[in-house]
Amino acid sequence: MIYIGIDDTDTLETRGTGHLARDIAAALAANYEVLGVVRHQLSADPRVPCTHKNSCAAILLADGEVTAVFNHIKPLMLADFVPGSDPGLCVADAVPAAITAFGHKAQRELVTQAEARALAAAHTILLAGLGGDEDGVIGALSAVGLTAGGSDGRYIEVGRLRELTGLQPVDALLAAGISAVQTLDGQPIHDGLVDSDRMRPARRDGRPVAIVEWQDDHWFPLKLD
């Protein structure tokens, strides 16, 4: 598994990190098997300079060589650089628990570039700032750690899920790339119709899981961080 962490930081006038991550995933699909794109929410501390909701994103590849993947993505991000943004890129295969712990820390409190860079260097993880003040290295490293942890964030791209619209049977969701459909308390759902519009399954146990609740006459998907 290859984990690609991206935090563009963006600006108020431009597309966000999630959009950039999906564009890069589409470009990578010609050469790699893309397993999904996962969004993670970081700290809402007002001292964090962000324009939208301080999120980061990770792209999952089934396999690949870390340096080659990094070198493939770097020029794509540089070519799409937006003045005023502070992008960061991280690519790793083996992700130690300390990187996941850093991601959780970045969700709770203020962390620094120096801390991110030192941690990446200590574990020989490729991490680079690609413009601006390079604050995106924090989110990029966090995205890798949180996604590797397996149970944080939500998929903004997985399988053929975005092709579905309206009410769909559970089997259609499973065929489109969802691993399971369940309630918030973990009860599996096998029957009934699910509202598939703008569904963003949660990443749980390393899988895309649609978490739903019953509304009127169908299942409604919850959007969890």
Describe this protein's structure.
The protein has 2 domains: 154 residues, Alpha-Beta Plaits (2-Layer Sandwich); 62 residues, no CATH class. 31% of the residues lie in helices and 27% in strands. Strands 5-4-1-3-2-6 form a 6-stranded antiparallel sheet, with helices on both faces. Strands 8, 10, 11 and 12 form a 4-stranded mixed sheet that branches. Strand 11 and strand 12 form a beta hairpin. Helix 4 crosses helix 5.
How many discrete structural domains? 2
Give me the oligomer status.
Answer: single chain
Q: pLDDT average, as an integer?
A: 92
**The CATH top-level class label of the largest domain:** Alpha Beta
Major beta sheet summary: 6 strands, antiparallel
- Looking across the biggest beta sheet, what order are the strands in? 5-4-1-3-2-6
* CATH topology-level fold name of the largest domain: Alpha-Beta Plaits
What attributes characterize this protein structure?
4-stranded mixed sheet, Alpha-Beta Plaits, 225 residues, single chain, 6 helices, 6-stranded antiparallel sheet, alpha+beta
Itemize the secondary structure elements and their pairings.
Layout: E1 2-7, H1 17-28, E2 34-41, E3 55-61, H2 66-79, E4 88-92, H3 97-108, H4 113-122, E5 126-129, H5 136-149, E6 154-157, E7 167-169, H6 170-176, E8 180-183, E9 193-195, E10 202-204, E11 207-215, E12 218-221
Helix pairs in contact: 3-5, 4-5
